[in-house]
């Protein structure tokens, strides 16, 4: 139990120390859609834009995204590229 308490204290202090260093971060996420899912891609991009505009969720971070479309008949296409 003492080890757990020590680890918890160290991790809290470490997190507070690095908080200033990671401010204004850019988070990049990617999505893979079937070629027939154009509407899903649009919804995905709108969700990312909504998150970026909401300062209550992301105060200093911004999300960027990339989208890849794959052939529905070849589920391994994204891995092959």
TrEMBL record:
Keywords: Signal. Residues 1-23 form the signal peptide. Coiled coil: none annotated. It comes from the Eukaryota. PANTHER family: GLUTAMATE RECEPTOR IONOTROPIC, DELTA-2, GLUTAMATE RECEPTOR IONOTROPIC, DELTA-2-RELATED. This is Glutamate receptor ionotropic, delta-2-like. It comes from Lepidothrix coronata (blue-crowned manakin). The gene is LOC108505553.
């Amino acid at each position: 139990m003492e080890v757990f308490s020590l680890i918890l204290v160290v991790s809290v202090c470490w997190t507070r120390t690095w908080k200033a260093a990671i401010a204004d971060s850019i988070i990049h996420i990617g999505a893979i859609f079937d070629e027939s899912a154009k509407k899903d891609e649009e919804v995905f991009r709108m969700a990312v834009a909504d998150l970026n505009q909401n300062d209550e969720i992301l105060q200093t971070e911004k999300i960027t995204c990339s989208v890849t479309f794959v052939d529905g008949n070849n589920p391994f296409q994204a891995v092959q590229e």
